[in-house]
Amino acid sequence: YDYVLRDLFLWAILMNRTDIAKVLLCFMKYRICPALIATKILKEYYKEADYGHLQDGYLENAKYFEQYAINCLDKADDYSTELACEIILQQNELYGYVTCLQVASDAKDKLFIAEPCCSQAMDNIWYNKVHPDQKLKRRRLALFSGIISFGLLAPLFVKYRESKEVRS
């Protein structure tokens, strides 16, 4: 059922039947990633379109789907910030195991990437398991001593996060 909806949604986007795509998107299990994929496709169509009114339609629909993805992410963020970060970084099987962040980056969806959840998810990737407290200015001395000692003193200064066990 999910694959059928995915195929129909992609067909509707590729055939510029965005009204049908909007309806299909409401019935899909995962909505953020397909909406971002639609923005990527419509932005590529925008680049290739020859006529002004056609370009305007592609750009307007691309903005709609980007805003739809942002609204879905905001609703998830209202519920739980950690959950929203997980949604952004979750690999979507239906679309070749890509993450929403990868699709948004490829589509150059700057408004989506500028969302606080995306920033936090990128911080989590960048700092991996380093405790967020490490980013403060008072820790720069500890960082400097770790660099000078070629990392030998780093385990004394760096605090790592406790890993949480996920129940299956």
Automatic annotation (TrEMBL):
The keyword Transmembrane applies. It is a multi-pass membrane protein. It is found in: Membrane. One of its GO terms (molecular function) is monoatomic cation channel activity. InterPro entries: TRPM, TRPM-like. Residues 5-114 form the TRPM-like domain. Pfam families: TRPM2. GO terms for cellular component: plasma membrane. GO terms for biological process: metal ion transport. The keyword Repeat does not apply. Keywords: Membrane, Transmembrane, Transmembrane helix. This is TRPM-like domain-containing protein. It comes from Rotaria magnacalcarata.
